[in-house]
């Protein structure tokens, strides 16, 4: 039976009077990829910084591998691979010098350094200050994962990566899952979470509002219609049972709930004499935006 590798219980963090996170409880199981979703400022990074012992919570507790996270046991980090959302690298170091520096700081050997350097095509002899944002992100990825940790805690890890390298990272994470590793994946990009995660938590303004299996969440995604109308009338459209994503001029994006019958909806919509109508598949992002609006 799988056990929790990360347990968060009633976690609260305030910055003075400002809210960071409130009463957050989660369990991330062994061998799963767990998505942590919310827009910027929702509390994702605050949660992660408490998890890896950078921030001290106002209240609540966190356990990693069964060990309670406290100021007295920084060794918990030794078997964690952490990619921060933003990081600063020493610009006068070459890539090779920086990776060696990180390797020498750790007690764990860097088993996968050469493999990951090759996989992410890092220019080892270049100084970090000469690298693009994407190449700096790749350096951070290799530095975080080269010691082959059991637990990966990733805060917006694909930032700055081109689509091919994003796909390479997704492949690496899915391989890590097959090896039994546990991955906590924070993101505001719902399409990438939809690709690789087993479960998803949605956080809003520091508060957990939903935890869902990804396949269940996908089933709940409403169908999407894109319609061009001469004179869009929001009240009339809502009377048909539509959730409006947006109206831009004569173009309307509509979500139709899975529970609604599409045939009568379309029949009524046609009475409004649409000039164009398309029926693209709705994405999890469409669902998320609608869900987030209804939770205000």
Short description:
32% of the residues lie in helices and 29% in strands. By secondary structure, it is of the alpha/beta class.
Question: Overview of this structure, please?
Answer:
The protein is of the alpha/beta class. The protein has two domains: 4-218, 3-Layer(aba) Sandwich (Rossmann fold), CATH 3.40.50; 221-294, Alpha-Beta Plaits. Helix content is 32%, strand content 29%. The chain is built from ten helices and 14 strands. The protein has helices at residues 44-51, 95-105, 113-119, 133-145, 163-178, 190-196, 214-219, 234-239, 262-270, 284-294; strands spanning 4-15, 18-29, 33-37, 59-64, 67-68, 80-83, 151-155, 182-187, 199-204, 207-213, 223-228, 243-248, 251-256, 276-278. Strands 6-7-8-3-9-10 form a six-stranded mixed β-sheet, sandwiched between helices. The chain has a four-stranded antiparallel β-sheet with strand order 2-1-4-5, with helices on one face. It has a four-stranded antiparallel β-sheet with strand order 12-13-11-14. A hairpin with a 2-residue loop joins strand 12 and strand 13. It starts with a strand and ends with a helix. The relative contact order is 0.14. The mean pLDDT is 88.
